[in-house]
Amino acid sequence: MKRKSLLFGLCCVLTATGAHAALKPGDAAPDFSVPAAIGGKDFQFSLSESLKKGPVVLYFYPKSFTRGCTIEAHEFAEGHDKFVAAGASLIGVSGDTIEVQREFSTKECGDKFPIGSDSSFSVINAYDAKRLKPSASGDTVADRISYVILPDGKVAFALIDSNPIKHVESTLEFVRKWRDARKP
């Protein structure tokens, strides 16, 4: 019981960022499967399969190869080993096609983690991650939102912030505290 209240406290403290995602800590994370690429190779990413291995950091971003999204991809790639050490896996998702994601996974993600293609916006909509106003190009895109989903399939952390670096720092901090709270 003590561990659960500590985890609840972690969720509440770390999500008090001023911006609120539609999915809140404690909500069930919608299961999904999307075409994805890692190292330029295509595969089918399954959230439920990834959760069997530990927490999943799911981050949505507007558009591959744009300035902020490239910075965010580089930061997640640099932090990849720290996420793995904390027991978590990563996936980035945008509305870009799998052909674009294949190239982005190699050039900007350093072949470190998968990038999913949600060109139908079904996952983006399920996670309420669609940007409310069109991008500068007039396209509909995903907003910059990160979630940490625990192995029980529940959202434990959510962050909306335009600063791409903050997503890496905040999700890694949450995953580390979650891991440390589970130690005997």
Summarize the structure.
By secondary structure, the chain is an alpha/beta fold. The chain is built from six helices and seven strands.
Question: Any descriptors?
Answer:
6 helices; seven-stranded mixed β-sheet; about 180 residues; 7 strands; alpha/beta; Glutaredoxin
Q: What does this protein look like?
A:
With 184 residues, the protein is of the alpha/beta class. The protein has a single domain (2-182), classed as Glutaredoxin, CATH 3.40.30. Helices cover 39% and strands 20% of the residues. It contains 6 helices and 7 strands. The protein has helices at residues 2-14, 47-51, 67-85, 98-107, 122-126, 164-182; strands at 33-38, 41-46, 56-60, 89-94, 115-117, 145-149, 155-160. Strands 2-1-5-4-3-6-7 form a 7-stranded mixed β-sheet. α1 packs antiparallel against α6 and α3 (67-85) packs parallel to α6.
* CATH structural architecture: 3-Layer(aba) Sandwich
CATH fold label: Glutaredoxin
Rg, nearest Å: 15 Å
Number of separate helices? 6
The total count of strands amounts to 7
| Domain unit count | 1
The low-pLDDT segments are 1-20
Question: What is the structural class?
Answer: alpha/beta
Order of helices and strands: HEEHEHEHEHEEH
Distance between the termini: 14 Å
Major sheet: order of its strands?
A: 2-1-5-4-3-6-7
CATH superfamily: Glutaredoxin
Strand share of the residues? 15-25%
Inertia-based shape: globular
Main β sheet profile: 7 strands, mixed
Helix content: 25-40%
Question: What is the average per-residue confidence, as pLDDT, rounded to a whole number?
Answer: 87
CATH class placement: Alpha Beta
